[in-house]
Amino acid sequence: MEEEANHHAIIDMEKVIDRERLASTEQKISENPKLLSKAAGKKSCCIFRVPQSLVEANGKAYLPRIVSIGPYHRGQPRLNMIEEHKWRYLASLLSRTTQTQRLGLESLFKAIAPLESEARECYSETIHLDSHDFIEMMVLDGCFIVELFRKVAKLVPFEPDDPLVTMAWILPFFYRDFLKLENQIPFFILNQLFEITKLPGENSTLTLSTLALVFFNNSLQRPDEAIVSSAKGKHLLELVRSCFIPREEESKPLKRVVTPTHVIHCVSKLRRAGIKITPGNVSESFLHVTFRRGVISMPTLTVDDFMSSFLLNCVAFEQCYSGLSTQFTAYVTLLDCLINTYRDVEYLCERNVIENHFGTEGEVASFINNTGKDVAVDLDLCYLSHLFNDVHKYYRNSWHVQWASFKYTYFDTPWSFISALAALFLLILTVAQTYFAAYQYFDNPQNS
Fold first, then answer.
1. Which residue in 180, 383, 394, 421 has a CA-CA distance of 20 to 30 Å to 116?
2. pTM of the entire predicted model
3. What crossing angle do the helices spanning 187-196 and 105-112 adopt, rounded to 10°?
4. Sequence-distant contacts of 242-246: CB under 8 A, at least 24 apart
5. Selected residue with higher pLDDT from 282 and 80
6. Closest CA to 275 of 139, 388, 358
7. CA of 215: how far to CAs of 171, 209, 236, 279, in Å?
8. Nearest to 364 by CA among 395, 394, 336
9. What 3-state DSSP class applies to 297?
10. Dihedrals φ, ψ of 242, to 5°?
11. Is the pLDDT of residue 445 over 80?
């Protein structure tokens, strides 16, 4: 009976298990991830899809508006207008190089073909393009960027009535779209195309990095020239990001600082505690924030369409790329702590810490709060660790808080000072009146 029951169980199990579906399950086990490939954790991978949590917080800030660079947004109909002009710019470049260097389209393909495998590894997603289409995309997008950089730097003239430069609204969108994390191609591809298409007599010391920074100069809050000259990156976003971080800061090992709290109070509360915020040195990067003797020094940050896009994409890059420091993430976390309402933004604008070309003070506050939302940063191990710790200690010092609160309440504005003075005068009159009334009462012999 037991053997018969086992036999029936085996038959029943064979009915339950679908061999075709089992084979399908085994195939899924053997397949590699495509949306976040295994190569995404390597140092070579540097071009990522922005995490969904950041997309939900900041909407379309990570999407290219007019031009697609690389594979992630390739072929989208809304970007076709500039796609057509890429071919025109490639034709312009080839007409020049064919005449001067006998360098044709085939030469460009041959120059990029050996770099295909390395270029594919730069993307966190598996790129479903065959070799020809992938190389064509690298050549087309890369030559468009390099040619545009040369034209803006006046190494090559624009064609007469070129709409990409005569229409004032287009270039500002290029500044932003070229610095979006999902809209990148590897810098070594750009550099290869730049080197082989150099003009006869072109300055041999002129680098693509310098040319790129000349292009972004109209929108970039450029810090010290020594930092700019040493800028490097795996793509244009990292190149421009590195301009704001001194080379020694990028490579300097950080020491863990255990802070009692990971919160700095908002501007309004800090002011009540006697902590002031002043603009820093204009030649410094806006990341150079210091705290000394109750004063937070912050170089002016211009908040506009370009800077808002740049900040968001730098933070997204730091969230994805493990081999990177987190200066931008720590900085926006600090801003998020300092700003709670539009009144905090008003004060920072009055102090020239923020230069607002973005919108209302409320819109700036909302932008800052969203930028700092759902980002991961170890505040015990970042370049602002000591600042968070020192501000917290100063804020917790009771006599600082009490004295500063008294001054803030009664002497912050002329009206509060006048009110306090009037109250004090009234108090003195009341005390004097009471004194003289008591004096007359006790001094009168009849009351004895």
1. 180
2. 0.83
3. 140
4. 243/213, 243/285, 244/285, 244/286, 244/287, 244/327, 244/328, 245/285, 245/287, 245/325, 245/327, 246/285
5. 80
6. 388
7. 10, 10, 11, 28
8. 336
9. strand
10. -65, -20
11. no
